[in-house]
Specification:
This protein is α/β, with parallel strands linked by helices and 440 residues long. It has 14 helices and 18 strands. Strands 4-12-11-10-7-5-6 form a 7-stranded mixed β-sheet, with helices on both faces. Bound molecules: pyridoxal-5'-phosphate.
Length: 440
């Protein structure tokens, strides 16, 4: 087909997706694909969920859209109530947007405005981590750590400081316990604050479980508590980006619930709309919200589609489904099963260096050799080749080339729907194994 759609990869020929059902997508030829990554960790309920469809029909039949400067809507109010009820800490104020990057942009700007409201205008910098992805708009790209994604646009980006991630597989020293390692890398935040001047920094932003640049990288126990402590000590805000790892993906509604800390601002997207609607959100704590509410009374930011009635109705139905169908225990159970099966399948494979993650958010790191952990050269385009082979075999997984200290590493991210069955876990592992082994 001679496509007039400006596809991201201009020369790729893509199948036409025509139908989705449960864990499967179908193309124009009727070929089935097991959607083991929800696209990019989006489709947490699977496809064609009857309850979400009904809620969307109901909303559109009465009201599709009303601009948020003129009206609020019942669905936006109910969704904000529900998120506040279930979020850790006092994240009682939700700002609805249309996706993850928009949510991150709003978070960065709200954090900056917070300091203007409380009389600290000298705070202008953000600190984040080298293995991180926070979105593709200019602000989000600036704080993200993926050098390859940032490089062409570097001259346009606000300056941001990047410290080490918590990446045991690559960086933990042999004599360190996991806890000691976590403390060492968390302390890099304090070291960097002292170098740049702690009272010039607005916020530290991090993904509780890193997704798109490192393949489901979890932090060591105690890492995020130490990060929180340092932020408190220097008056820096903590922004947690749960765009990919949030909304139940790791087994709890918010991934940072498992870190035992509270954030000042949290971003969510992907699983929030589960692909039924494009929607993201930024949740602000009482302290941050009150500074604006009691100060200028106006957040100097906004988009046309924020608080979209149909999008919020869809997201509300998704959240109801996660709760009413009691899906989070299945995330933990099937996540453990998938992890076990992957370890069995790849035990002898010298190219699968690490298998990690939490819940149904699992990453495989591919290396030339397990012993040396040497990454594959980026020119091998391994991720693209595995993706293509997997699609031939009827599997959607999310291979990516992240960065390991400036060079590319290759990972495969798995984020299947929360409804995945045991048979589908086996199908996933089988097809993934065949895809990897036929390429390397
Ligand atoms: N933040 C994180 C952690 C992400 O993984 C992503 C997307 O992958 C984004 C932000 C950007 O979200 P979007 O692609 O919806 O703009």
């Amino acid at each position: 087909m001679n496509s007039r759609v400006f596809h991201r990869h201009c020369h790729s020929t893509l199948p036409v997706a025509v139908r989705g059902e449960g864990a499967y997508l179908f193309d124009q030829n009727g070929k089935a694909y097991l959607d083991a990554s929800g696209g990019a960790a989006v489709s947490c309920l699977g496809h064609n969920h009857a309850g979400v469809r009904a809620a969307l029909h109901h909303q559109i039949d009465s009201l599709a859209y009303a601009h948020s400067a003129f009206f609020t809507t019942e669905s936006a109010e109910l969704l904000a109530d529900k998120l506040a009820e279930h979020a850790p800490g006092d994240l009682n104020h939700t700002y609805f947007l249309s996706g993850g990057s928009e949510a991150v942009e709003a978070a960065l700007k709200l954090a900056r405005q917070y300091f203007l409201e409380i009389g600290q205008p000298q705070r202008t910098r953000f600190i984040s981590r080298r293995q991180s992805y926070h979105g593709n708009t200019l602000g989000a790209l600036a704080v993200g750590g993926n050098i390859w994604r940032r490089a062409p646009f570097d001259p346009l980006l606000i300056p941001a400081e990047h410290i080490a991630p918590c990446y045991s597989y690559r960086d933990k020293r042999a004599h360190e316990t996991p806890f000691e390692y976590g403390q060492r890398v968390a302390n890099e935040l304090e070291e960097r604050l002292l170098v740049v001047g702690p009272d010039t920094v607005i916020a530290f932003i991090a993904e509780p479980v890193v997704g798109a640049t490192a393949g489901a990288l979890t932090a060591e126990e105690g890492y995020f508590s130490r990060i929180r402590e340092i932020c408190n000590q220097y008056g820096v805000l903590l922004i947690l980006d749960e765009v990919m790892c949030g909304m139940g993906r790791t087994g709890t509604l918010f991934a940072h619930e498992q870190e035992g800390i509270h954030a000042d601002i949290v971003t969510i997207a992907k699983g929030l709309g589960a692909g039924y609607q494009p929607i993201g959100a930024m949740l602000a704590s009482d302290r941050v919200y009150d500074a604006v509410s009691n100060g200028s009374g106006f957040f100097q930011h906004g988009h046309t589609y924020m608080g979209h009635a149909t999008a919020t109705a869809g997201a509300l139905a998704v959240l109801n489904a996660i709760q009413n169908e009691n899906l989070l225990p299945n995330v933990v159970h099937k996540g453990n099963l998938l992890m076990d099966r992957l370890h069995q399948r790849f035990a002898e494979n010298v190219h699968v260096g690490d298998i990690r993650g939490r819940g149904l958010f699992i990453g495989l790191e591919l290396v030339k050799d397990k012993e040396t952990k040497q990454p594959f050269d980026p020119v091998t385009q391994l991720h693209a080749r595995i993706k293509n082979r997997a699609m031939e075999l009827g599997l959607i997984c999310y291979p990516m080339s992240g960065t390991i200290d400036g060079t590319h590493g290759h990972h495969i991210l798995l984020a299947p729907p929360f409804i995945i069955s045991t048979e589908q876990v086996d199908e996933l592992v089988d097809k993934l194994g065949n895809s990897i082994e036929s390429v390397i």
